[in-house]
Amino acid sequence: MATRAPEDSYTAAPFVPEGGDLDALRRAAAECRGCPLHRDATRTVFGAGAVDARVMLVGEQPGDQEDRQGKPFVGPAGKLLDRALGEAGIDPGEAYVTNAVKHFKFTRAEPRKRRIHKAPSLREMTACGPWLAAELALVEPELIVVLGATAGKALLGSSFRVTQVRGTVLEEEIHGRAERLVPTVHPSAVLRAEDREGAYQGLLSDLQVAARALS
Fold this sequence. Notes:
Layout: H1 22-29, E1 55-59, H2 64-69, H3 76-88, E2 95-99, E3 106-108, E4 115-117, H4 122-139, E5 143-147, H5 149-156, H6 162-165, E6 170-174, E7 177-184, H7 187-192, H8 196-214
Parallel strand pairs: 1-2, 1-5, 5-7
Antiparallel strand pairs: 3-4, 6-7
């Protein structure tokens, strides 16, 4: 009988060390085989920021640039997010940024062509959940900013709709902890919008709600 590969179980739990700090988590995540996404991605992209950050920003998954560099939010969406955070009164350097899924999921129209982002499935998000739970337990943020629908579904369940709750302060239990959350759109959605300035102002308004919640 063939042995099942670890990724067939769709859970990162066996790879998450107990009692480690963020550096230990990051090292362990680099070896994660908790779902099949690790096969095609260049590397694991773990969260980044201070362990005492007051705000945690949770996005969907790494993009092409993040996958190459191994850091979250280093591409165009990350630069736009930093600008919006600064304008809203939140120091990007004092935030912890991470993604619901730690490996880049993509498709290619042709070999050697540009890698096109593909949304992770609920099963893949659930598999990666233990990493996010471990990050939340260590950072203990005062507020979580939920960036986009996929991150919202990962944290709040499949019925989450970002358009219904964006710019509001929610109080929910997440991975066994009482959390306050402010959902908004993912900055990449702003970059794709026809009315980019209008979309940016919407993101900024939501982040201002988050800034007031932290004050």
